[in-house]
Known about the structure:
- The chain has 159 residues and is an alpha/beta fold.
- Helix content is 39%, strand content 10%.
- It has 4 helices and 5 strands.
- It has helices at 18-36, 57-71, 89-102, 132-145, and strands spanning 2-4, 12-16, 83-84, 106-108, 125-127.
- It has a 3-stranded parallel β-sheet with strand order 3-4-5, covered by helices on one side. A two-stranded antiparallel ribbon has the order 1-2.
Amino acid sequence: MRTKSETTELECGNRLRLSGFMLAHAMFHAIENVNALDYILQNITLEAKIYDTCRSQTIASGHTKEFIKMTLQPQLDVQLAGIIGASVSDVSAKVASILQVFEIPQISFKSTSVLLSDRDLYKYFMRTVPPDSFQAAAMVDICLKYNWTYVLTINSAGI
Length: 159
């Protein structure tokens, strides 16, 4: 799991993101555990393929095309149930706009842009985290509840 190239949208950069490897490992571990329990998904075996988007809309679009091509091949005995990701909102929006045409669901675990809440544009997009507006409203509610008059915030570009 690498970062975006600083010179082009068409390739990944050289820096590795350890968090991406950890999330991928956790997903494969969860899939292995679910598949080992016959009573959870009877007669269904979960599989996953991971493509690194490198936080690039262009790279993510190419990978999305590959996923869609898999669904159009009737001779395959696997069925695409959906896409998990991306981890950044602009990439998720690009992927969602492509998947929308084919009615393929997408679940993001990190994309928080309010724009992705538009059901007309992103009908098949879901997320496991609240949008930025909900997080901001919760922070304001906490400040009001405790009558805080000064708040210091810390921002991180991510890990």
